[in-house]
Amino acid sequence: IMLSEVKKLRKILIFTNITMVFYYIGIEFLTGVEFQGGVPTLLYRQWLVILYFIFFVLMLFYMNRSYQNWLEKEVSLAREQELHSLSVYSKQIEGLYEELRAFRHDYANILASLKEGIDQDDMSMVRNIYNAVLEDSGKFIQHSRFNIGRLTNIDNDAIKSLLSAKFLEAESHHIEVELEVKDKIGAPDIPLLDYVRLVSILCDNAIEAAIEAEKPAMIIACFYQGDDYLLIIDNTTKEERVPVELIYQKNYSSKGFGRGVGLKTVNQMLKKYPNMSVQTSSKNYHFRQTIRIKKSFD
C-alpha cells in the first residue's frame, strides 16, 4: 500500500510542477504580448491567475486527502497485525496451559508412585522413577517455548504482540529463542510506531542470520538500567565475526551476513532521536545489538 500511494503522490507532484511551468510561461507570454505588441492581455492574465489558483488549491486538497487516507490505511493495517499477533499469542498461551495441566496430572501420578516407593523403603524404585521421569520433566519445564509467558511483563500491547509474533516466527524456523523480560516494563521515550519498526527490523535481521548459523539461536532481552530503556537482540551467525564497522555505511550491502534489511531506517532513527543509541558487537559466532533509549526530561 505504502509504495503504490507514494508513487501516486509523486506523479501528482510532477504533474503539478509541470502545470506550474506552463502557467509561468503563459503569464510571461501574455505580458510580453501586451508590452511589445500593444495588445491588452490583463483580463486574460487575471483569469489565468484565478484558474490556476483554484487548480492549485484543489491539488493541495487532493494531496492532503490522499495522505490522510494513506495514514488511515497504515493505522488500520497496524491494528490488524496487532490483533492477529495477540490472537496467536493467546493461542500459544492456551496451548502451554493445556500442556502444563496435562503435566500436572502426570506429575500427581508420579508423586503417588514415589510415595509408594518411599513407604516400602524401596530406594531402587525411587531411583528408577527419578531416572525415567523426573529428570526429563525438568527439561520439559525449561523448554524455550515456555519463555513466551514472560511477555506478560510487557505492559504495552503493541510491543508484546510484535515480540510474540517474532518469537513464534523464529521457532517456526527451528531457532532456539530465549526471552528475558523479568520485570514489568512499558514503552520507551520515543514514538511507539518508530520503536515497533526498530524492533521489527532488528528481529527480522536476527532471524535471517540465525537460520544460516550452525546452531540457530536468538536472545531477546528488555529491561531498565537506571532510567534507561535497554533492548538487547543477540543471534548466532554463520561467520565467526560480522564486520560491524561496515554495516551502517552508505551503499554497503550486508545481505550475505543476514544484516541487510532496514539498516538505513535504523540509521535514520539514530539521527532523529538523540536520546537513542545502538551498540553493535560481533564475536565467537554471535552478533549483538544493544539499543539504549534514555529517558527524556521535559
From TrEMBL:
It holds the Pfam family HATPase_c_5. Keywords: Membrane, Transmembrane, Transmembrane helix. Residues 192-293 form the Sensor histidine kinase NatK-like C-terminal domain. The chain crosses the membrane at residues 12-32, 44-63. The keyword Transmembrane applies. GO terms for molecular function: identical protein binding. This is GHKL domain-containing protein. It comes from Streptococcus vicugnae. It comes from the Bacteria.
